[in-house]
């Protein structure tokens, strides 16, 4: 009896020490992410851009049977030029929009009067009391300032991408040498392959879907004559990478500008109903159909990850929340001690390797 009681006490002490050590490590990791944001954000962006380039170059090879070096050059050119154009549009129009935001604020009272007959006096009073107090110039600087910052870091990201592409083939050989024994090297390579597969699929599909959404939205904005249509289209493209709330914000901002810019309620309703319906259909039907179970993340985890990464890395963290959490889930799934956590993080309790036993062998 004494021996059993002692064993129970030892197990309790061991579990408490594990919880203590886990909390210490988690705290240090979060502090490191926060303190090292200036270094880690460009590096993380470069890794995701590198994944997109590899996915595009592999697609070029599959379609055209072109040599690897030509496919890599094509992928690098398309991705970096597209990324530069996105950052340039946002960066160049950020200052103009921030300067003209005061004009929109002065026209806000007229816009509120126009929607009085549509929604009633009570709602109008609520809108006036709550929105007039918002510093719209501050909001504009927060949203567009991140794009300007990324434009300043574009060349650093490009430098990282160049070295990552140069060491793409040599890196796998170095993993095998660093692992020591073949089994450990194979397990580590399998984990990296799973991360690469999931990220390539996520980044590729989300880029394609966001491009479709932004193109249709841009056509609507240009047809209506909305000011800064290019900025709103690029923001629509970028905000679709933010889960759940990104698509809502992508509709709200151009709709508010339309409400203030035009003297009629028509353009506002077209953007809200037209673009809102488009975002709803794509987000609830096309997006899940194309992504399928490749992410296999709990819906609650997606929201939790969005809040966490936004708190740690700001607006850029919101864009990166899903890819980073996918990487964490895959890493946990390959570590036996952390596999139960990965199961809790997943959507249905099944991990990717459970569905693909052939790839794990």
UniProtKB/TrEMBL annotation:
<feature type="transmembrane region" description="Helical">
    <location>
        <begin position="202"/>
        <end position="221"/>
    </location>
</feature>
<dbReference type="InterPro" id="IPR002549">
    <property type="entry name" value="AI-2E-like"/>
</dbReference>
<feature type="transmembrane region" description="Helical">
    <location>
        <begin position="322"/>
        <end position="347"/>
    </location>
</feature>
<feature type="transmembrane region" description="Helical">
    <location>
        <begin position="265"/>
        <end position="286"/>
    </location>
</feature>
<dbReference type="Pfam" id="PF01594">
    <property type="entry name" value="AI-2E_transport"/>
</dbReference>
<keyword id="KW-0812">Transmembrane</keyword>
<feature type="transmembrane region" description="Helical">
    <location>
        <begin position="23"/>
        <end position="56"/>
    </location>
</feature>
<keyword id="KW-0472">Membrane</keyword>
<protein>
    <submittedName>
        <fullName>AI-2E family transporter</fullName>
    </submittedName>
</protein>
<feature type="transmembrane region" description="Helical">
    <location>
        <begin position="233"/>
        <end position="259"/>
    </location>
</feature>
<feature type="transmembrane region" description="Helical">
    <location>
        <begin position="68"/>
        <end position="90"/>
    </location>
</feature>
<feature type="transmembrane region" description="Helical">
    <location>
        <begin position="298"/>
        <end position="316"/>
    </location>
</feature>
<keyword id="KW-1133">Transmembrane helix</keyword>
<feature type="transmembrane region" description="Helical">
    <location>
        <begin position="138"/>
        <end position="163"/>
    </location>
</feature>
<comment type="similarity">
    <text>Belongs to the autoinducer-2 exporter (AI-2E) (TC 2.A.86) family.</text>
</comment>
């Amino acid at each position: 009896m004494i021996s059993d009681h002692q064993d129970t006490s030892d197990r309790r002490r061991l579990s408490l020490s594990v919880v203590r050590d886990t909390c210490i490590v988690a705290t240090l990791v979060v502090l490191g992410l926060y303190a090292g944001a200036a270094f880690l954000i460009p590096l993380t962006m470069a890794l995701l851009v590198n994944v997109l380039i590899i996915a595009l170059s592999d697609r070029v090879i599959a379609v055209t049977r072109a040599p690897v070096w030509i496919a890599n050059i094509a992928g690098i050119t398309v991705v970096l030029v597209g990324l530069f154009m996105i950052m340039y549009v946002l960066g160049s129009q950020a200052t103009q929009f921030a300067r003209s935001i005061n004009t929109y604020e002065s026209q806000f009272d007229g816009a509120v009067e126009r929607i009085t007959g549509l929604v009633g006096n009570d709602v109008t009073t609520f809108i006036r009391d709550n929105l007039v107090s918002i510093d719209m110039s501050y909001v504009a600087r927060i949203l567009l300032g991140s794009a300007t910052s990324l434009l300043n870091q574009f060349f650093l990201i490009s430098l990282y991408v160049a070295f990552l592409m140069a060491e793409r083939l040599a890196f796998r050989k170095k993993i095998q040498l660093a692992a020591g024994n073949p089994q450990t090297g194979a397990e580590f390579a399998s984990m990296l392959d799973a991360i690469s597969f999931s990220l390539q699929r996520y980044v590729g599909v989300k880029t394609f879907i966001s491009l479709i959404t932004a193109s249709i939205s841009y056509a609507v904005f240009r047809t209506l004559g909305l000011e800064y249509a290019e900025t709103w289209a690029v923001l629509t493209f970028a905000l679709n990478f933010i889960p759940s709330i990104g698509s809502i914000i992508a509709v709200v901002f151009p709709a508010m500008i339309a409400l203030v810019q035009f003297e009629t309620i028509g353009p506002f309703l077209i953007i809200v109903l037209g673009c809102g319906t488009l975002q709803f259909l794509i987000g609830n039907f096309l997006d899940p159909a194309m992504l399928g179970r490749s992410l296999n993340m709990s819906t609650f985890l997606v929201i939790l990850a969005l809040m966490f990464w936004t708190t740690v890395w700001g607006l850029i963290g919101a864009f990166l929340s899903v890819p980073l959490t996918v990487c964490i889930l895959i890493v946990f799934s390959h570590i036996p001690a952390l596999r139960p956590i990965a199961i809790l993080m997943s959507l249905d309790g099944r991990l990717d390797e459970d569905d693909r036993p052939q790839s794990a062998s």
